[in-house]
Amino acid sequence: MRLHPKDNVGLALTKLKENCSFENVITQNNIPAGHKIALVDIQKGDTVKKYNQIIGFASQAILAGEHVHTHNIEFRTFERLPESNLTNNNSANNTVSKSFYSGETASFKGYLRPNGKVGTRNYIGIISTVNCSATVCKRIADNFKEDVLASYPNADGVIALTHDSGCGMSIEGEGLALLQRVLIGYAEHPNFAGILIVGLGCEVNQVSALIKKIETNEEQQIRTLVIQENEGTRKTIENGVKIVEEFLEGLTDLQRENVSAKHLCIGLECGGSDAYSGISANPALGAAADLVVEQGGTVILSETPEIYGAEHLLIQRAVTPEVGKKLMDLILWWENYVEIHQGSLNNNPSPGNKAGGISTILEKSLGAVSKGGTSKLMDVINYAEPAKTKGLVFMDSPGYDPVSVTGQVASGANVVCFTTGRGSVFGCKPVPCLKLATNSPMFNRMDEDMDINCGEIIDGTINVQELGLIIFKQILATASGELTKSEEFGFGDFEFAPWIIGAVM
Fold first, then answer.
1. What is the distance between the alpha carbons of residues 462 and 162, in angstroms, rounded to a whole number?
2. Which sequence spans correspond to the domains of the chain?
3. Is 186 exposed, middle or buried (0-12, 13-18, 19+ CB in 10 A)?
4. Which three-class secondary structure state does DSSP give residue 73?
């Protein structure tokens, strides 16, 4: 498949043997499924183009019909803003055609909180301020297994949110500020009906300082315990269990209500990507994201290292020059960050990504940005900063999936959509996570983990827009309480992973 008339490489949808005819060229070697094949002779140093965008440079002469991958293509930096001519994204707008959803006002059944936020689930959360209180949090949560929760049908679960930080850091600085943004974002999240915060007592991230920054409402109660002030571990656990029981008893009369889809805030994530990601699951999710925006909702795109090389496609869609500059500043920060740590942003494609046909970070990023659809980029926010602007929002984060999704949830995402080509397994309590497979073989192999098969686009049985509508309707069903595959399996207890940054002392 040639993805754009100006491309000099094509995509092998299935495995091609040597001496096969493909786009009027003869294969010079075996081409794995999902990998690239040269459509013309490419000279050493020439640009290699896919999606009509530069994905790398030929590290040696490549003959028409040859396999194009990491052995003969290399990463280089280059000026990208003049290359912003991907026709798929040039017509950025704030809405998509109303005919795509028949002009209907979409809705779902959610938990309407007194502050106007809407939850898609109803959890009780136990948050540790520091790693030192993590065991106590987990022991409290362990008292509320399925047999106990059966007596509380309105409760989706009790989850301990623990982490590896909270002390050994400066009282002033981005490290503590970032951690507190995450914890505050979770404490204020509408998917929690009650929050218990547990501290040790001597940590840098003090309970008293944290609680002052949290906005609460009458329904979403916030309680605290400090181990050193509460007669130690055993007594703190006993008191914690009593508090959680009180939370659960208060859920008896809480019911879902029909609310507008404008209350949706969708986290857009990809992991275990392959070469199909950029032509199936990611653009299909982008079509669904456009529908969420059309309905007045919010979609959060993140993973800054995984838009590197494609950031110009988002910058040209920025609602103001200031928003575009904020994104460019993030790219410059990451370039400096990896240089300090003697890394390269091109290290991002994992071994699994490369096995799936992705050669460079440029190629990976061009596929990743399509998750954001075609609407305007309305805002750029820091990691775990509240997403207060409707429409497409970009949140700074690493490409590591648990860290990225943790930030999205802290920013307000009440549903996460996660595309994968290799077969990532993931959940993110307290928020449901829909898994979108990029190809049919993997979907069929891992159907117990995958929710939607976007490989049907590759198979030719459905187009991107049609599948986007299916994804959107599944988002509504999930937001209304329908369980995802990861929820059925119980994923999400160990995926809470705040970004740790700054000096650890």
1. 42
2. 9-78, 123-249, 260-489
3. buried
4. strand
